[in-house]
Amino acid sequence: METFTPVMPASHRLQPHLENGAPGRLQPHPENGAPGRLQPHPENGAPGRLQPHPENGAPQKQTSALDTDGVEEAEKGRERKVWEPSGYYALGKEYFCFAGHNISIRESLDTFGALIWPGAVALCQFLENNQQEVSLKDKAVLEIGAGTGLLSIVASLLGAWVTATDLPDILSNLTFNLTRNTRGRCRYTPQVAALTWGQHLERDFPRNCCHYDYVLAADVVYHHDYLEELLATVSHFCRPGSKTTLLWANKVRFQTDLRFTERLESSFSTKLLCELPQQEVKIYQATARE
């Protein structure tokens, strides 16, 4: 999927969501009655039940597309590719359909983290289409480099207890997108936390209480000055004995992308789950070596 660059006027700047305490504060894992346990959302029928979206029929159809004069309906009945969501772009937003829900993502031109990248779209589609192989239901999931929040939103809609992380200046837009797309829809309320790769990991995410079943990362290998810090961050969460699985999607852009992949393969047990040659996106699974 091509990446679009929206133009967002100053009046559309996003404000942080202030529910559940200060934005970016990490909440304890919801086990054994620990304080801060996330409760199932009681709306829309049984707690935690994902409701099918009543519009547009099956979610596997592309419903709309970009046109120079505005948003037009796309060709009817065209089957989606396995990695491709239903989506269209208009007025600084992108629209998707995943897990039976319409998702509206607001982008920004301020930073890399405020745009939707191909790896995130590909990993969202993989998770939706391979729920038997990779089930996120009732799993603790951490996303690093969450950006606009699309991947964390989809993980939440698939039943995961999600903590979305990124740099502090990304959190306002991230929180806005998460809140507007998950409220009343998800089993657990997603959390947002600040995370700078390689910095204060044990202080902010102590190993004795911050355990995750999955770590998600999409198109995080783009700023090559900080790849060592990225690897240190992944190693902190996916450590020996933790049984934490990394799911990483990346569009290959530079030779250094391949070098990072080699470093990852040398430190972790890795498996190529999916390769999309046309989009140059690969999806890996990795666990720490014992």
What does the secondary structure layout of this molecule look like, with pairings?
Elements: E1 64-67, E2 70-73, E3 86-90, E4 93-98, E5 101-106, H1 118-129, E6 140-143, H2 150-157, E7 161-166, H3 171-182, E8 191-194, H4 201-204, E9 214-218, H5 227-237, E10 245-251, H6 255-267, E11 268-276, E12 281-288
Parallel strand pairs: 6-7, 6-9, 7-8, 9-10
Antiparallel strand pairs: 1-2, 3-4, 4-5, 10-12, 11-12
Description:
There is one protein chain. The protein has 290 residues and is α/β, with parallel strands linked by helices. Helix content is 21%, strand content 23%. The strands form 3 sheets. It has a 7-stranded mixed sheet with strand order 8-7-6-9-10-12-11, with helices on both faces. The chain has a 3-stranded antiparallel sheet with strand order 3-4-5. Helix 1 packs parallel to helix 2 (150-157). The protein is globular, with a radius of gyration of 18 Å. It comes from Muraenolepis orangiensis. Keywords: Methyltransferase, S-adenosyl-L-methionine, Transferase. Residues 1-79 are annotated as: Disordered.
Distance separating the two termini = 37 Å
Strand order of the largest sheet: 8-7-6-9-10-12-11
How much is the radius of gyration in Å?
18 Å
CATH superfamily of the domain at 109-288, by name, is: Vaccinia Virus protein VP39
Instruction: Name the structural class.
Output: alpha/beta
User: What about the largest sheet?
Assistant: 7 strands, mixed
Sequence of secondary-structure elements: EEEEEHEHEHEHEHEHEE
